[in-house]
Design goal:
CATH architecture of one domain in chain B: Alpha-Beta Complex
Order of helices and strands of chain B: HEHEHEHEHH
Number of strands of chain B: 4
Radius of gyration of chain A: 16 Å
Oligomer: heterodimer
Radius of gyration of chain B: 19 Å
Largest interface: A-B, 10 and 15 residues
CATH architecture of chain A: Alpha-Beta Barrel
CATH superfamily of chain A: Metal-dependent hydrolases
Strand content of chain B: 5-15%
Shape of chain A: globular
Number of strands of chain A: 10
Distance between the termini of chain B: 31 Å
Order of helices and strands of chain A: EHEHHEEHEHHEEHEEHE
Number of helices of chain B: 6
Protein backbone atom coordinates (compact mmCIF):
# COMPACT_ATOMS: atom_id res chain seq x y z
CA UNK A 1 0.00 0.00 0.00
CA UNK A 2 1.26 3.47 -0.84
CA UNK A 3 1.38 5.91 2.07
CA UNK A 4 0.10 9.22 0.71
CA UNK A 5 -0.70 12.79 1.68
CA UNK A 6 -2.36 14.94 -0.98
CA UNK A 7 -2.81 18.20 0.95
CA UNK A 8 0.43 19.99 1.89
CA UNK A 9 1.26 23.70 2.20
CA UNK A 10 4.67 25.36 2.08
CA UNK A 11 5.98 28.91 2.39
CA UNK A 12 4.66 29.54 -1.13
CA UNK A 13 1.40 30.25 0.75
CA UNK A 14 0.69 30.02 4.48
CA UNK A 15 2.79 26.95 5.39
CA UNK A 16 5.64 27.46 7.85
CA UNK A 17 8.13 25.14 6.16
CA UNK A 18 9.97 25.70 2.88
CA UNK A 19 9.28 23.37 -0.02
CA UNK A 20 12.57 21.42 0.04
CA UNK A 21 12.40 20.96 3.81
CA UNK A 22 8.77 19.84 3.51
CA UNK A 23 9.76 17.22 0.94
CA UNK A 24 12.49 16.01 3.30
CA UNK A 25 10.11 15.75 6.26
CA UNK A 26 7.84 13.40 4.31
CA UNK A 27 10.71 11.57 2.61
CA UNK A 28 12.50 10.89 5.88
CA UNK A 29 9.24 9.46 7.27
CA UNK A 30 8.93 6.91 4.45
CA UNK A 31 6.06 8.39 2.45
CA UNK A 32 5.45 7.11 -1.09
CA UNK A 33 3.35 9.93 -2.56
CA UNK A 34 2.77 13.56 -1.58
CA UNK A 35 1.09 16.49 -3.31
CA UNK A 36 2.19 20.09 -2.78
CA UNK A 37 -0.98 22.14 -2.76
CA UNK A 38 -0.38 25.77 -1.89
CA UNK A 39 -3.31 28.19 -1.76
CA UNK A 40 -4.51 30.11 -4.78
CA UNK A 41 -6.79 32.64 -3.12
CA UNK A 42 -9.65 34.57 -4.68
CA UNK A 43 -8.71 38.23 -4.77
CA UNK A 44 -12.22 39.56 -5.34
CA UNK A 45 -13.02 40.48 -1.73
CA UNK A 46 -11.14 42.07 1.19
CA UNK A 47 -10.32 38.65 2.74
CA UNK A 48 -8.67 37.54 -0.47
CA UNK A 49 -6.94 40.86 -1.00
CA UNK A 50 -5.42 40.53 2.46
CA UNK A 51 -4.08 37.07 1.59
CA UNK A 52 -2.52 38.46 -1.59
CA UNK A 53 -1.13 41.44 0.33
CA UNK A 54 0.73 39.12 2.74
CA UNK A 55 1.78 36.76 -0.08
CA UNK A 56 -0.27 33.86 1.27
CA UNK A 57 -1.26 32.91 -2.25
CA UNK A 58 0.33 31.49 -5.37
CA UNK A 59 -0.50 33.90 -8.18
CA UNK A 60 -0.34 33.84 -11.97
CA UNK A 61 2.95 35.77 -11.63
CA UNK A 62 4.83 33.17 -9.58
CA UNK A 63 2.96 30.04 -10.73
CA UNK A 64 5.68 29.02 -13.21
CA UNK A 65 8.38 29.44 -10.58
CA UNK A 66 6.24 27.40 -8.15
CA UNK A 67 5.82 24.60 -10.71
CA UNK A 68 9.53 24.56 -11.65
CA UNK A 69 10.51 24.35 -8.01
CA UNK A 70 8.11 21.44 -7.41
CA UNK A 71 9.49 19.69 -10.49
CA UNK A 72 13.06 20.03 -9.21
CA UNK A 73 12.09 18.76 -5.79
CA UNK A 74 10.10 15.91 -7.34
CA UNK A 75 13.21 14.67 -9.12
CA UNK A 76 15.30 14.92 -5.97
CA UNK A 77 12.62 13.17 -3.90
CA UNK A 78 12.30 10.32 -6.37
CA UNK A 79 16.06 9.78 -6.57
CA UNK A 80 16.64 9.97 -2.83
CA UNK A 81 13.48 8.56 -1.26
CA UNK A 82 11.63 6.84 -4.12
CA UNK A 83 8.81 9.25 -3.30
CA UNK A 84 6.47 10.73 -5.92
CA UNK A 85 5.79 14.47 -5.56
CA UNK A 86 2.68 15.74 -7.36
CA UNK A 87 2.16 19.39 -8.22
CA UNK A 88 -1.11 20.86 -7.08
CA UNK A 89 -2.89 23.92 -5.74
CA UNK A 90 -5.72 24.56 -3.32
CA UNK A 91 -8.27 26.86 -4.89
CA UNK A 92 -9.33 28.95 -1.91
CA UNK A 93 -12.64 30.75 -2.16
CA UNK A 94 -12.99 32.53 1.16
CA UNK A 95 -16.08 34.60 1.93
CA UNK A 96 -17.51 36.13 5.09
CA UNK A 97 -20.06 33.34 5.39
CA UNK A 98 -18.83 29.77 5.85
CA UNK A 99 -21.80 28.66 3.72
CA UNK A 100 -20.28 30.50 0.74
CA UNK A 101 -16.68 29.38 1.27
CA UNK A 102 -15.01 26.43 -0.39
CA UNK A 103 -11.51 24.99 -0.79
CA UNK A 104 -10.72 22.68 -3.72
CA UNK A 105 -7.53 20.71 -4.37
CA UNK A 106 -6.44 20.49 -7.99
CA UNK A 107 -3.90 17.66 -8.21
CA UNK A 108 -1.48 17.14 -11.10
CA UNK A 109 -2.11 20.68 -12.30
CA UNK A 110 -0.25 21.95 -15.36
CA UNK A 111 -1.66 25.43 -16.01
CA UNK A 112 -2.70 28.16 -13.61
CA UNK A 113 -6.37 28.37 -12.61
CA UNK A 114 -7.51 31.63 -10.96
CA UNK A 115 -9.66 31.24 -7.85
CA UNK A 116 -11.98 34.08 -8.83
CA UNK A 117 -13.57 32.03 -11.64
CA UNK A 118 -16.97 30.45 -11.03
CA UNK A 119 -17.04 26.84 -9.85
CA UNK A 120 -18.03 25.27 -13.17
CA UNK A 121 -15.23 27.10 -14.97
CA UNK A 122 -12.68 26.00 -12.37
CA UNK A 123 -13.81 22.38 -12.63
CA UNK A 124 -13.80 22.42 -16.43
CA UNK A 125 -10.31 23.95 -16.59
CA UNK A 126 -9.06 21.28 -14.19
CA UNK A 127 -10.72 18.52 -16.23
CA UNK A 128 -9.15 19.83 -19.43
CA UNK A 129 -5.71 19.34 -17.77
CA UNK A 130 -6.69 15.83 -16.63
CA UNK A 131 -6.17 17.03 -13.05
CA UNK A 132 -7.90 15.52 -10.03
CA UNK A 133 -10.51 17.61 -8.21
CA UNK A 134 -10.81 17.08 -4.46
CA UNK A 135 -13.23 18.88 -2.14
CA UNK A 136 -11.31 19.86 1.01
CA UNK A 137 -12.61 19.72 4.58
CA UNK A 138 -16.19 19.84 3.25
CA UNK A 139 -17.97 19.80 6.62
CA UNK A 140 -17.67 21.24 10.13
CA UNK A 141 -14.18 21.03 11.65
CA UNK A 142 -13.10 21.06 15.30
CA UNK A 143 -10.19 23.41 14.61
CA UNK A 144 -10.70 26.80 16.19
CA UNK A 145 -8.17 28.70 14.08
CA UNK A 146 -9.65 27.71 10.71
CA UNK A 147 -13.01 28.64 9.28
CA UNK A 148 -15.34 25.95 7.98
CA UNK A 149 -15.95 25.72 4.25
CA UNK A 150 -19.40 24.33 3.59
CA UNK A 151 -20.34 25.60 0.13
CA UNK A 152 -19.56 22.45 -1.84
CA UNK A 153 -21.28 20.18 0.66
CA UNK A 154 -24.41 22.33 0.73
CA UNK A 155 -24.46 22.30 -3.08
CA UNK A 156 -23.28 18.72 -3.54
CA UNK A 157 -26.16 17.71 -5.76
CA UNK A 158 -25.06 20.33 -8.23
CA UNK A 159 -21.29 19.82 -8.04
CA UNK A 160 -20.64 16.18 -6.99
CA UNK A 161 -20.41 15.05 -10.61
CA UNK A 162 -17.34 17.26 -11.12
CA UNK A 163 -15.53 16.18 -7.95
CA UNK A 164 -13.22 13.15 -8.10
CA UNK A 165 -12.91 12.74 -4.34
CA UNK A 166 -13.94 14.36 -1.05
CA UNK A 167 -11.76 14.63 2.01
CA UNK A 168 -13.28 12.18 4.48
CA UNK A 169 -10.61 13.14 7.00
CA UNK A 170 -8.50 16.26 7.34
CA UNK A 171 -5.71 16.39 9.93
CA UNK A 172 -7.56 15.20 13.09
CA UNK A 173 -11.15 15.63 11.85
CA UNK A 174 -13.31 12.93 10.28
CA UNK A 175 -16.33 13.83 8.14
CA UNK A 176 -18.77 10.93 8.54
CA UNK A 177 -21.20 12.51 6.11
CA UNK A 178 -18.83 11.88 3.19
CA UNK A 179 -18.86 8.16 3.98
CA UNK A 180 -22.62 8.12 4.44
CA UNK A 181 -23.07 9.60 0.96
CA UNK A 182 -20.64 6.91 -0.34
CA UNK A 183 -18.57 9.53 -2.13
CA UNK A 184 -15.01 8.71 -3.27
CA UNK A 185 -12.74 9.82 -0.49
CA UNK A 186 -9.20 10.76 0.60
CA UNK A 187 -7.66 11.50 3.99
CA UNK A 188 -5.03 14.23 4.27
CA UNK A 189 -3.06 16.26 6.78
CA UNK A 190 -3.58 19.81 5.49
CA UNK A 191 0.09 20.15 6.45
CA UNK A 192 1.21 23.64 7.53
CA UNK A 193 3.67 22.79 10.34
CA UNK A 194 5.96 19.80 11.05
CA UNK A 195 3.64 18.56 13.82
CA UNK A 196 0.89 18.09 11.21
CA UNK A 197 2.84 15.11 9.84
CA UNK A 198 1.07 13.01 12.43
CA UNK A 199 -2.50 13.06 11.17
CA UNK A 200 -4.92 11.20 8.88
CA UNK A 201 -3.41 9.85 5.67
CA UNK A 202 -4.49 7.93 2.60
CA UNK A 203 -3.30 4.42 1.70
CA UNK A 204 -3.58 3.43 -1.97
CA UNK A 205 -3.29 -0.08 -3.32
CA UNK A 206 -1.80 0.72 -6.71
CA UNK A 207 1.47 1.22 -8.58
CA UNK A 208 3.46 4.33 -7.69
CA UNK A 209 2.95 6.36 -10.86
CA UNK A 210 0.74 9.35 -11.41
CA UNK A 211 -1.73 7.74 -13.82
CA UNK A 212 -2.32 4.69 -11.62
CA UNK A 213 -2.76 6.94 -8.59
CA UNK A 214 -5.32 9.14 -10.32
CA UNK A 215 -7.20 6.12 -11.58
CA UNK A 216 -7.18 4.54 -8.12
CA UNK A 217 -8.61 7.70 -6.55
CA UNK A 218 -11.23 8.23 -9.26
CA UNK A 219 -12.45 4.63 -9.05
CA UNK A 220 -11.99 4.67 -5.28
CA UNK A 221 -11.02 1.02 -5.15
CA UNK A 222 -8.09 0.07 -2.96
CA UNK A 223 -8.35 3.36 -1.03
CA UNK A 224 -7.98 3.25 2.75
CA UNK A 225 -7.25 5.75 5.48
CA UNK A 226 -4.85 5.50 8.39
CA UNK A 227 -4.16 7.65 11.42
CA UNK A 228 -0.41 8.20 11.12
CA UNK A 229 1.10 8.44 14.60
CA UNK A 230 4.61 8.00 15.92
CA UNK B 1 25.53 38.75 44.12
CA UNK B 2 25.44 35.03 44.94
CA UNK B 3 23.43 34.34 41.81
CA UNK B 4 26.00 36.16 39.65
CA UNK B 5 28.84 34.13 41.19
CA UNK B 6 26.87 30.92 40.65
CA UNK B 7 26.22 31.78 37.01
CA UNK B 8 29.91 32.56 36.42
CA UNK B 9 30.90 29.34 38.18
CA UNK B 10 28.53 27.23 36.03
CA UNK B 11 29.69 29.04 32.85
CA UNK B 12 33.36 28.33 33.68
CA UNK B 13 32.57 24.68 34.41
CA UNK B 14 30.68 24.40 31.12
CA UNK B 15 33.59 26.02 29.22
CA UNK B 16 36.06 23.62 30.79
CA UNK B 17 33.86 20.68 29.80
CA UNK B 18 33.66 21.92 26.22
CA UNK B 19 37.43 22.37 26.03
CA UNK B 20 38.13 18.96 27.58
CA UNK B 21 35.82 17.13 25.20
CA UNK B 22 37.08 19.12 22.21
CA UNK B 23 40.72 18.39 22.99
CA UNK B 24 39.90 14.68 23.29
CA UNK B 25 37.81 14.43 20.13
CA UNK B 26 40.23 16.45 17.98
CA UNK B 27 43.30 14.51 19.07
CA UNK B 28 44.88 12.57 16.15
CA UNK B 29 43.72 8.97 15.98
CA UNK B 30 46.13 6.11 15.19
CA UNK B 31 46.00 5.19 11.49
CA UNK B 32 44.24 1.96 10.59
CA UNK B 33 46.27 -0.64 8.68
CA UNK B 34 44.28 -0.79 5.47
CA UNK B 35 46.27 -3.73 4.05
CA UNK B 36 45.29 -6.07 6.82
CA UNK B 37 42.20 -8.25 6.09
CA UNK B 38 39.25 -6.95 8.04
CA UNK B 39 36.88 -9.20 10.02
CA UNK B 40 33.17 -9.26 9.14
CA UNK B 41 30.90 -7.12 11.30
CA UNK B 42 27.18 -7.44 12.08
CA UNK B 43 25.53 -4.07 12.74
CA UNK B 44 22.40 -4.32 14.87
CA UNK B 45 19.96 -1.41 14.60
CA UNK B 46 16.98 -1.56 16.96
CA UNK B 47 14.15 0.64 15.64
CA UNK B 48 11.06 2.12 17.24
CA UNK B 49 9.16 5.07 15.80
CA UNK B 50 10.35 7.97 13.68
CA UNK B 51 13.48 9.82 14.73
CA UNK B 52 14.44 13.11 13.10
CA UNK B 53 16.13 12.37 9.74
CA UNK B 54 15.57 8.63 10.24
CA UNK B 55 16.06 7.85 6.56
CA UNK B 56 19.46 9.57 6.38
CA UNK B 57 20.59 8.06 9.68
CA UNK B 58 19.80 4.51 8.58
CA UNK B 59 21.04 4.98 5.04
CA UNK B 60 24.46 6.12 6.30
CA UNK B 61 25.04 2.57 7.59
CA UNK B 62 24.35 1.17 4.11
CA UNK B 63 27.05 3.31 2.48
CA UNK B 64 30.09 2.28 4.52
CA UNK B 65 33.34 1.56 2.70
CA UNK B 66 34.04 -1.48 4.89
CA UNK B 67 34.60 -4.70 2.90
CA UNK B 68 32.44 -7.24 4.76
CA UNK B 69 29.48 -6.32 6.94
CA UNK B 70 25.77 -6.82 7.34
CA UNK B 71 23.11 -4.49 8.72
CA UNK B 72 20.23 -6.00 10.70
CA UNK B 73 17.31 -3.68 11.36
CA UNK B 74 14.97 -5.00 14.00
CA UNK B 75 11.46 -3.95 15.07
CA UNK B 76 8.81 -5.32 17.39
CA UNK B 77 5.89 -4.42 15.17
CA UNK B 78 5.39 -4.22 11.40
CA UNK B 79 2.96 -1.32 11.90
CA UNK B 80 5.76 0.77 13.40
CA UNK B 81 6.24 3.81 11.10
CA UNK B 82 9.97 3.06 10.98
CA UNK B 83 9.24 -0.17 9.09
CA UNK B 84 8.27 1.65 5.90
CA UNK B 85 11.41 3.80 6.02
CA UNK B 86 13.74 0.85 6.46
CA UNK B 87 11.92 -1.25 3.84
CA UNK B 88 12.54 1.49 1.29
CA UNK B 89 16.23 1.55 2.19
CA UNK B 90 16.44 -2.23 1.88
CA UNK B 91 14.78 -2.07 -1.55
CA UNK B 92 17.19 0.66 -2.63
CA UNK B 93 20.33 -1.28 -1.65
CA UNK B 94 19.16 -4.87 -2.06
CA UNK B 95 21.61 -5.56 -4.91
CA UNK B 96 24.73 -4.18 -3.28
CA UNK B 97 24.42 -4.55 0.50
CA UNK B 98 23.61 -7.29 2.99
CA UNK B 99 20.57 -5.81 4.75
CA UNK B 100 17.98 -7.72 6.79
CA UNK B 101 14.81 -6.57 8.52
CA UNK B 102 13.56 -8.63 11.43
CA UNK B 103 10.09 -8.04 12.81
CA UNK B 104 9.74 -10.20 15.89
CA UNK B 105 8.00 -9.40 19.16
CA UNK B 106 10.17 -10.35 22.11
CA UNK B 107 9.36 -9.92 25.81
CA UNK B 108 12.42 -11.53 27.33
CA UNK B 109 13.45 -8.51 29.39
CA UNK B 110 12.19 -5.25 30.86
CA UNK B 111 14.14 -2.99 28.53
CA UNK B 112 12.35 -2.57 25.16
CA UNK B 113 15.61 -1.92 23.33
CA UNK B 114 17.13 -5.13 24.68
CA UNK B 115 13.96 -6.98 23.65
CA UNK B 116 14.40 -5.51 20.21
CA UNK B 117 18.05 -6.58 20.03
CA UNK B 118 17.63 -10.23 21.06
CA UNK B 119 16.14 -11.45 17.73
CA UNK B 120 18.76 -9.42 15.82
CA UNK B 121 21.60 -10.93 17.82
CA UNK B 122 20.36 -14.45 17.02
CA UNK B 123 20.40 -13.56 13.34
CA UNK B 124 23.91 -12.03 13.31
CA UNK B 125 26.39 -14.00 11.21
CA UNK B 126 29.72 -12.36 12.17
CA UNK B 127 31.74 -12.52 15.39
CA UNK B 128 32.07 -8.76 15.73
CA UNK B 129 28.82 -7.09 16.74
CA UNK B 130 28.15 -3.37 16.54
CA UNK B 131 25.06 -2.02 18.28
CA UNK B 132 23.89 1.40 17.17
CA UNK B 133 20.73 3.41 17.89
CA UNK B 134 18.49 4.72 15.13
CA UNK B 135 19.33 8.37 15.81
CA UNK B 136 22.99 7.88 14.89
CA UNK B 137 24.48 8.89 11.54
CA UNK B 138 28.04 7.96 10.55
CA UNK B 139 30.68 8.77 7.93
CA UNK B 140 31.68 6.26 5.27
CA UNK B 141 34.93 5.28 7.03
CA UNK B 142 33.25 4.73 10.39
CA UNK B 143 33.54 0.92 10.54
CA UNK B 144 37.17 0.97 9.42
CA UNK B 145 38.02 3.57 12.04
CA UNK B 146 36.24 1.80 14.87
CA UNK B 147 37.07 -1.82 14.03
CA UNK B 148 40.86 -1.54 13.98
CA UNK B 149 40.82 -0.97 17.75
CA UNK B 150 39.65 -4.56 18.01
CA UNK B 151 42.95 -5.74 16.50
CA UNK B 152 44.49 -5.27 19.92
CA UNK B 153 43.90 -8.60 21.72
CA UNK B 154 43.53 -6.82 25.05
CA UNK B 155 40.48 -4.90 23.72
CA UNK B 156 37.07 -6.56 24.02
CA UNK B 157 34.76 -3.60 23.65
CA UNK B 158 34.92 -0.31 21.78
CA UNK B 159 32.56 2.55 22.51
CA UNK B 160 31.91 5.87 20.74
CA UNK B 161 31.11 9.35 21.87
CA UNK B 162 28.20 10.73 19.89
CA UNK B 163 28.02 14.34 18.74
CA UNK B 164 24.61 16.00 18.74
CA UNK B 165 23.42 18.17 15.85
CA UNK B 166 20.34 20.28 15.16
CA UNK B 167 19.19 20.79 18.74
CA UNK B 168 15.61 22.05 18.99
CA UNK B 169 16.17 23.99 22.19
CA UNK B 170 18.91 26.12 23.75
CA UNK B 171 19.68 23.34 26.23
CA UNK B 172 20.01 20.78 23.45
CA UNK B 173 22.22 23.12 21.43
CA UNK B 174 24.48 23.77 24.45
CA UNK B 175 24.80 20.02 24.99
CA UNK B 176 25.78 19.69 21.32
CA UNK B 177 28.51 22.35 21.61
CA UNK B 178 30.17 20.32 24.35
CA UNK B 179 30.51 17.27 22.13
Amino acid sequence: MLLCDFHIHTTYSDGSVQLSKTVDIFGQAGFDVIAITDHVVNGDNPLGKLAHRFKYSVTSDNFNQYMCHIKEEAKRAYDKYGMLVISGIEITKNHYSIDDSAHILILDIKEFIPACLNYEEIFLRAKRQDALIVACHPHYMTRTMDRDTLYLWKNREKYARYIDAWEIANRDDIFNVVGLEKYPHLANSDFHKPKHLFSWKTLLNCVNDIDSIKQCIRHNKGVAMTLFRN
Amino acid sequence: MYIAVLIIFVAVLYLLEVLAVRSYTTAPMPEADTNKPRPGISILKPLKGLEDCLHDNLESFCNLDYPVYEVIFTLQDKNDPAYKVVKKIQDKYHCSKDISIIVEPCNAGLNPKVNNLIPAYKHAKYDLILISDSNVRVERDYLTAVSHHMDDPSVGLVSNIIRGVSGRSLGAEMANWGR
